[in-house]
Hints:
Elements: H1 7-28, H2 31-60, H3 72-106, E1 110-115, E2 120-123, H4 125-130, H5 143-146, H6 150-158, E3 165-168, E4 174-183, E5 186-193, H7 195-231, H8 236-267, E6 277-278, H9 280-295, E7 300-305, E8 311-312, H10 315-331, E9 338-346, E10 349-356, H11 378-383, H12 390-399, E11 406-410, E12 414-421, H13 428-436
Parallel strand pairs: 7-9
Antiparallel strand pairs: 1-2, 1-5, 3-4, 4-5, 6-8, 9-10, 10-12, 11-12
Pfam families: HATPase_c, HisKA, PAS, PhoR
EC number: 2.7.13.3
Transmembrane segments: 12-45
Amino acid sequence: MLERLSWKRLLLELLLAILPAAILGLLLGGLAWFLLCAVLAVLFWHFWQLMKLSNWLWVDRTMTPPTGRGSWEPLFYGLYQMQLRNRRRRRELGNLIKRFRSGAESLPDALVLTTEEGNIFWCNGLAQQHLRLRWPEDNGQNILNLLRYPEFSRYIRQRDFAKPLTLVMNNQRHLEFRVMPYSEGQWLLVARDVTQKHQLEGARRNFFANVSHELRTPLTVLQGYLEMMNDAGMAGRSRDKALHTMQEQTRRMDSLVKQLLTLSRIEAAPVVDLSEKVDVPIMLRLLQREAETLSSGRHTISFDFDSELKVFGNDEQLRSAISNLVYNAVNHTPEGTHIRVSWQRVRDGVRFSVSDDGPGISAEHLPRLTERFYRVDKARSRATGGSGLGLAIVKHALSHHNARLEITSQPGKATTFSFTLPPGLIVQADLAENAVH
Length: 437
């Protein structure tokens, strides 16, 4: 192991240079000149080593230091070891920064690093997506110049970050901002997308409001008739009418509760066993008789289905989806409408559709038809006993079968509700039998 540079070593080198010069000077005469030449030689040698060091540090910059002699050898070696340690530390720091940025990119939040003045010096991908920042173009820009919202500017300038700030952005997304110290003179700004949370909260409020409204009406009717029957005796036609109305309202509440339970049960099952064989043709034969009974001759109803076409899935959920579509067509189309129900194999799988030549549905209503309690004609729906939950049940039941409800309508001409189950759900035995025939 090389010795460290010390004054003893330097003194030894000087003595080794002066001692021969002193001996020669005593023997040959001219002691002073010999000593001066020895000292100049030592100085020139040190100057030459110093020049090699300077050239290596500022010109060459290779990892391998020049060959040092004497007292300069441990100095060159020490600098070389220091350079190795610095490069190793820079490499470790670079890897640490990469891991930090990789972890920051994996977070579900937008992250922005700024100075206390608000100047940006880093942001992740979600910040570029949600906050419309550009990186590295926005490096050094003040965040208040890029997010021009009065509430956000007040939040940053007041520097009271005990509570988060929720903003509705220009793209109608809700973002929750939090600011926290990151290091000395730096801030970490975190923005989380809470749009779905606000939507769910709004849906929850609407759900309870609608349920309360739907139950209040029949309960008010029942309470009114019970008070009438309690205050004064009712007999004859008045009593029969009151009992009939109370039975209707009771059935309406019972139907609403059943549909709520069905919808809750379907939504509460994130994974559905699709290995059960569902005999859809038998289901359609039963539905045809029920639809004709429900229609009582007010509609022309035709069923066109492949009697051998069965699928894998959940029998209860598929029955709910198909029956709701058929009953909706009977209940919500006027007298004289022709209703066509189809269950046929198509190129993309197997398609079920219910179409009618009724008055149709306006385009502005189509995107909202599967919302809970949404009705196109509220007065007519209540008159026919509709709760506005049927299509919501259909939507969630189909999502468990990798399918979605498709609605097409031309006002004044026709409306079609349909869905297509993927080929993987078709019972293969039925395919083989049909191929033989």
